[in-house]
# Entry
Amino acid sequence: MKTLFNAEAQPCMGLPTTETEPGDRNPLINQIYPPVAFYHNGKGGRVLDVTKAPFNAKGDGVTDDTHALIAAMRFVCDHYERLLENGFSYCGQKQNRNWIVYLPDGEYLVSDTVSQGWPALAMNILKGWSNVQYLHVESPEHEQELLSNVSSAPLLHGNPATPAGDDNAGRYIRGQYNDATVYAETNWAIRVLGQSRDKTIIRLKNSATGFGEGAEKAVVAFYLLQRGSNVNIGNIIENVTIKTGKGNPGAVGLKWNSSNWGGVRNVAICSGDGRGLAGLVTDANNATGYHHDLRVEGFDIGIKIAAGRETMVTLEYATLSGQRGTSICIGDARAGGGGDSLSARKVLVHGAPVALRAGRAGQAILLESHLESSGGEASAIVIEPDGFLLARDIRVSGYRAAVALHGEAVVRGDFIEEYASPAGLTGNAATRSLRLQIKDSPIISPELDFSKWANVDDFGALGDGCADDTAAIQRAMNSGNPVVYFPRANYVVNGTVDIPASVREITWLFGAVHRSVAAQPDGPALFRVAEPSPEPLLLHQAVTAGGVFLDHEEDRPVVLEDIYVIFNHIRSSASRADMLFPSPAAQNTTMWRLYRNTLPSGVAKEIFVNDSLFFGGDEGEKCVLENVNAWVRMGNNEHLPGAQFAFRRSDVWVFGFKAENAETLFLAENRSRIEVLGGSFLNWKCWRGPVILSRDSLVSAIFFMWHWGLATETIWQDENSGVFTTVPATRFKKLDKVDGAVIAIR
# Structure
């Protein structure tokens, strides 16, 4: 048991996965909103209809809607209040807007890149995290001029143990740290939501100017500067088809990035003639989020992830077809530092010469997928030096080899039961991955009857971020309506709102809810699952602070999705009125948490956590989450006083995570079973560890750990029936050209 992974080991028996075929499910989502949710209604709503004034897009497939769509995205950044004064945290964002750019069904013809538009806003942190300098970058040419002023090789986080040149094979050219004029781009939490994927289409004109051979020009872009950003939080696009037209060989369908949380969901990206550089690209830091139900047709490359730094993308249910080169490329970061981590499941590839390529510092996890070609190409999966692969339950057809490692075929045949490449690992091993049961996150379709939507404002909520709206929100919950929504930007809950069985969806529309009067550290959460039900409950699109967000009291499956619990390390900002929220967020707890099981003595609670922060966080073994069956798809925990993920008597499947600045990453106690398949873990100072602490439990984990020059002393400590085993950092091998290592342990 106390071993590293090895592909030749015997399988570990676990529960079966869900029996669903790989590939895009194309869920028939029809996302509509009540009129009061719209900004144009004048009642505090934050949904921006691009067909309404002041944008006035036509969506008729004939009128050029480029400027109208840019205007909608520019509206988001022009109406987002930045924290520009001394004492305002670099990581802090003011939660007073949080818009949704909404595209009703229609065909939006464009002739240029749809983005927030120039000028872009860049940040420089040379004078400290609380004295951030801002400057406008007027154009790509202006950015190049600024970058040319860099005079010396930088150090990451100013630490001589982590030279940036070594961290990116000497190619760290896209912005700097220590001698920077441009450090990072500010993006304004852009959410682009279409009404329905098949009928909401953004189409590039055929032979559009600027999209010629080698242009690398996006149809839709969430970032403009080469450096990208690590504070572009919560960029999301859903329910849209992007068509790149014909005669646009330099086109990229979508350039997306996002830090800490975000995603690309229910999106199709199609080339009209099969040509184009790539369907989906993220090559400027960071890229962190949960993608699902994607279809990419054509292009040289289907999906390219080369952002580096704290990149971690979770991908499920994707179909890639007709790529002229590679369907999925991961690694070879262009933005400098760190690595690129991808955890993919249920992927279907048709006809690409290479289905998956893992390049330098590219960590790829691939499960339950089908890779097929009819051309007799060499290898379905290619692993290059400093790349890593775990492939499990993969069907392969039409390729001469299933996996090639450094140019040599290492796996043949039509099925990969389990293979882990040896890059970065040392020692002998005798076991495979844990193979816990995998359950799909429930899909809860939008309610189309507005009479079944309860607007909390109609029940007396003020939504000004100061008044206590607890009683009004409770009345909305008790209304009998299955959907409860929050149209305004800020609500305060100083009591606890009970969620009855009649409610199946609660959406804050990316608005905020916080506690402004402190509760006791062990006091109740803002919301509570108060009645049992076999039907799943969806809580999503929320920003929160001030204690625990949800108490799971009664037995009911719960889905928590796109919930941003404010970072622990900017609590001092949130404690001051009008910095993050109109009123201070309560401070009588040592950390804010997403979730708590308040009755751990009963049946194990079933919980799905998608693209959310601070699930299972700990403050020194006081908040260990107990007796849950959890499926976590891209969880972000960082800067906590204890273990970043801590569980007791639980089964937890983690498919992608991001964490930083911690001594202990995972804590498993009292017969817990934790399987971690992919992640990014960053430290910028030395810790003793252990990174993983297992007490009478089973832990199986693979993730990328960078800043290896500051590697934690003990990676894993196992305490089993009084017998202690430790695995030090010296058992792992630093990657050749990147300051990091792949951690793979069981």
The radius of gyration is 24 Å.
